């Protein structure tokens, strides 16, 4: 397949936060396995690069909506031009009222939206050839510390939890910070799981945290794969989880090599309703000092 423009993303396999695991073709003009909701009979599509202007790229595909009725659909993405093993991409196209997806049949209108740089429209793509741990970022002070916690699960059940100060970089269930932004008083954080056993249905490689600090507590919600409209530190749409963290110790950024990452072993989505054990870790790693984490987060 050949498109009319060339993507800045290198050929190969890319794991994304909410649009599946892509294959970028040899000539960098198309993307395979892009998750779409336009046609329920076609959950993933192959997008060809149709046109671009600076960092804005319009990708399109054809789908048969009804017998012998084939329509073209387009999505506009803002993709940084630099070569990188991690891309922070923004979905530009407005959400379609019928499909609930950011595709349009109007090619000329695909990039018209101007208010697209938000956590809810953030799409992270990571090269499958690079270890997630190598791409982690330093996270903001609002999530740093050791806490006692209370959890509200998607089924409404609550639990009082005790946090143990043990940090263990295990081979699964570990989330590393990939990107964050602060809107008013809410900090949205995308984290990626280094567990290769996630399936995208009941377990997820990426989650979005919404974090607020008020009244001496850290309030946080977690939702699988992407930040949701209406998500904040105390409220989250169905399928998410609510945490109230009571700091027993805090820390602030001081050295250049401070690395903070969140470690979480929770299974979000339907499986949370029947889950008996949930692990949540928040770890601070500082030079010449022991690690401080939230560890062994068991549902009581």
CA radius of gyration: 20 Å
The parts where pLDDT drops under 50 for at least 5 residues are 161-172, 250-300
Strand order across the largest sheet: 1-2-3-4-5-6-7-8
Give the class from helix and strand content and strand pairing: mainly beta
Estimated share of beta-strand residues: 35-45%
**Approximate shape:** globular
How many strands in all? 18
How many strands, which pairing sense, and closed or not: the largest β-sheet?
8 strands, antiparallel, barrel
Descriptive labels:
300 residues, mainly beta, seven-stranded antiparallel β-sheet, 1 helix, 42% strand, disordered C terminus
Description:
- A hairpin with a 6-residue loop joins strand 17 (280-285) and strand 18.
- With 300 residues, this protein is an all-beta fold.
- It folds into two domains: 12-127, no CATH class; 133-293, no CATH class.
- It contains one helix and 18 strands.
């Amino acid at each position: 397949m050949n498109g009319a423009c060339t993507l800045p993303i290198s050929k190969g396999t890319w794991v994304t936060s909410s649009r599946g695991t892509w294959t970028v073709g040899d000539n960098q003009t198309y993307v395979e396995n892009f998750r779409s909701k336009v046609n329920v009979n076609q959950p993933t599509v192959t997008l060809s690069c149709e046109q671009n202007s600076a960092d804005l790229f319009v990708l399109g595909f054809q789908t048969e909506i009804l017998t012998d009725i084939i329509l073209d659909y387009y999505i506009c993405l803002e993709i940084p031009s630099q070569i990188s093993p991690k891309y922070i991409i923004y979905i530009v196209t407005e959400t379609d009222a019928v499909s609930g997806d950011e595709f349009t049949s109007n090619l000329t209108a695909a990039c018209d939206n101007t208010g697209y740089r938000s956590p809810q429209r953030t799409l992270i793509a990571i090269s499958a050839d690079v270890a997630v741990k190598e791409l982690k970022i330093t996270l903001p002070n609002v999530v740093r510390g050791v806490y006692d916690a209370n959890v509200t699960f998607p089924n409404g059940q609550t639990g009082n939890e005790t946090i143990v100060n043990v940090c263990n970089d295990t081979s699964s269930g570990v989330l590393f910070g990939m990107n964050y932004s602060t809107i008013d008083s809410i900090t949205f954080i995308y984290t990626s799981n280094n567990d290769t056993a996630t399936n995208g249905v009941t377990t997820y490689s990426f989650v979005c945290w919404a974090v607020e600090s008020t009244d001496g507590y850290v309030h946080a919600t977690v939702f699988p794969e992407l930040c949701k409209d209406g998500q904040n530190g105390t409220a989250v749409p169905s399928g998410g989880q609510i945490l109230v963290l009571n700091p027993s110790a805090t820390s602030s950024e001081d050295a250049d090599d401070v690395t903070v990452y969140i470690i979480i072993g929770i299974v979000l989505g339907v499986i949370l309703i029947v889950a008996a054990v949930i692990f949540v870790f928040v770890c601070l790693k500082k030079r010449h000092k022991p690690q401080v984490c939230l560890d062994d987060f068991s549902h009581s």
